[in-house]
Design a protein that fits this description.
The complex is a heterodimer of chains A (253) and B (226).
Chain A lengths: L3 H8 L7 H24 L13 H27 L4 H33 L8 H21 L4 H29 L19 H52 L1
Helix pairs in contact in A: 1-7, 2-7, 3-4, 3-6, 3-7, 4-5, 4-6, 4-7, 5-6
Chain B lengths: L1 H17 L1 H21 L2 H32 L3 H8 L3 H31 L5 H29 L5 H27 L7 H30 L4
Helix pairs in contact in B: 1-5, 2-3, 2-5, 3-4, 3-5, 3-6, 3-7, 5-6, 5-8, 6-7, 6-8, 7-8
The chains are: A mainly alpha (253), B mainly alpha (226).
Chain lengths: 253, 226
């Protein structure tokens, strides 16, 4: 079959990287290397928790990025509904961010339950924060499932934006009802009630650089992912055009 | 208001003629209740869990009722005709939710009776008032959320599996609230009546929040590929 037109168009696109994303990628890679070295070798083990405290340097940044991703998805979805002429652009950001968010939330849940096994002696506790996170995770898995169904991009954008915004309504209600239901979670340990820091300086700095590194990785992944979606959408249009052209050529022959 | 009732009556009349609820949903829900009892295989445990089990069965049945509610709209593009008959799409939303509510409330009543018979749950005077209020608010929430997600997936391929995947996490707070409040109404040792009423208030807030969201979101979702 003759698919020449699509080859020409695709050949003119040189991937999803640009100068800016390469710099961003290099910085996040360097930060990740520092994070690994510092978290595994430089920081001390905790007095109470021992070496298992090192899980925190992955767990906390992953959870932070997961929630950041879902906020990004919600904001981008809202924008895609309001700003009609840029709908598809915002929708691609929303989809890319949700995809990366699900990945990081999976990481946060796995590292969290490993830490829980070591510290609480159990993989899972039905406490509000964990349960809410689990429901958020399932909600966005569903969101991604809807995005995969093959429909017209405009319609997909509208539908998935509504689902993402409904999730924003859902999460506080889930959280509140589980709080009423039961409660047990490690109190936030970076800042406790009287405001003094319980982590030593290097631990805090490592945790902070973990958060920065993961945020940069998130940005890098989302930028590439949404460019890839844009390419895939273009490819679909070109593919359709060329298929029509081939069919016309056959009829003309 | 009138068009809401017209839409609801249309749905209920279709149900009256096709008897889907009676022929498929009620037997399914009863089967779920029986299977829970068989799976748990311990009478004290079943009695302790009865409130949650009843609401789980209703939750599963909701999926079927909502799917049916949009099955009748997607065949022959009926939804477009219904939308063009009223001035505002949100009335279609409330009409369909009202029809679902009537069916689910009837089902909930039946299942609570079955729970008394099969599981040995007991309800006395004060508990009965709470129980009826819980059933009203919880089925209202169920039908509003169900109808909203029903229209989200109405025009998608694979909607049968997408509807539970999308709506069940959203319905989780409702399940928790309805199960706890019903437990209180059944006179459980672990939760008292005032807590039961607090949960009922949460259910009412839930129904109002998602009802308003549905009224806003229904229009952009219901319109087809234009």
């Amino acid at each position: 079959m003759n698919t020449a037109p699509s080859h020409v168009a695709v050949a003119s696109i040189r991937g999803t990287g640009t100068g800016a994303t390469r710099v961003l990628g290099a910085i996040s890679l360097a930060l990740l290397v520092w994070l690994v070295v510092s978290a595994l070798f430089l920081t001390p083990a905790d007095v109470v928790q021992g070496d298992s405290v090192r899980i925190m340097y992955v767990h906390v940044p992953a959870a932070w990025v997961a929630y950041l991703a879902f906020i990004t998805t919600a904001v981008a979805s809202g924008c895609s509904l309001v700003r009609r002429h840029r709908t598809l652009g915002f929708d691609r950001v929303a989809g890319a961010s949700a995809e990366v968010g699900v990945l990081f939330m999976g990481m946060a849940l796995v590292t969290g339950s490993l830490w829980g096994r070591l510290t609480w002696g159990t993989f899972w506790q039905w406490d509000p924060r964990l349960t809410t996170t689990l429901f958020l995770f399932i909600t966005y898995v569903g969101y991604l499932a809807v995005r995969q169904v093959d429909v017209d991009p405009q319609q997909r954008a509208r539908r998935s934006a509504v689902i993402a915004l409904l999730a924003v309504l859902e999460i506080p209600l889930v959280h509140f009802s589980v709080v009423l239901w039961r409660s047990l979670h490690q109190e936030a340990s970076v800042l406790n009630a009287d405001g003094d820091v319980r982590l030593d300086d290097l631990m805090l700095f490592t945790l902070f650089s973990g958060v920065v590194a993961f945020t940069l990785v998130f940005a890098w992944l989302v930028i590439h992912r949404q460019r890839l979606t844009a390419l895939a959408d273009t490819e679909r249009v070109i593919g359709l055009d060329s298929a029509i052209a081939v069919r016309r050529a056959e009829v003309a022959r | 208001m009138k068009s809401i009732i017209v839409v609801a009556r249309k749905d209920l009349r279709i149900e009256g003629r096709s008897r889907t609820l009676l022929a498929r949903v009620v037997p399914f829900a009863l089967l779920v209740l029986v299977l829970f009892a068989v799976a748990l295989d311990s009478e004290p445990l079943i009695l302790r869990a009865s409130a949650g089990l009843v609401w789980m069965a209703i939750l599963f049945a909701t999926m079927l009722v909502v799917q049916r509610s949009f099955e009748i709209e997607t065949s022959d593009a009926a939804l477009d005709s219904v939308l063009s008959c009223t001035s505002s799409p949100s009335r279609v939303y409330f009409g369909k939710a009202l029809a679902t509510f009537v069916q689910l409330f009837a089902l909930a009543t039946l299942l609570v009776l079955c729970s008394v018979v099969l599981y040995g749950s007991r309800v006395d005077g004060d508990g009965l008032v709470l129980l009826v209020t819980v059933m009203l608010t919880a089925t209202a929430g169920l039908s509003l959320v169900g109808t909203l997600y029903g229209v989200v997936v109405a025009r998608l391929n694979g909607r049968d599996s997408l509807l539970p995947l999308l709506s069940l996490p959203v319905l989780a707070p409702l399940l928790i609230g309805a199960a706890r409040a019903t437990e209180a109404a059944f006179g459980s040792q672990t939760i008292d009546m005032s807590n039961g009423w607090a949960w009922t208030a949460l259910l009412a807030v839930y129904a109002v929040v998602f009802g308003s969201a549905g009224a806003v979101a229904f229009a952009p979702l219901a319109q087809g590929d234009s």
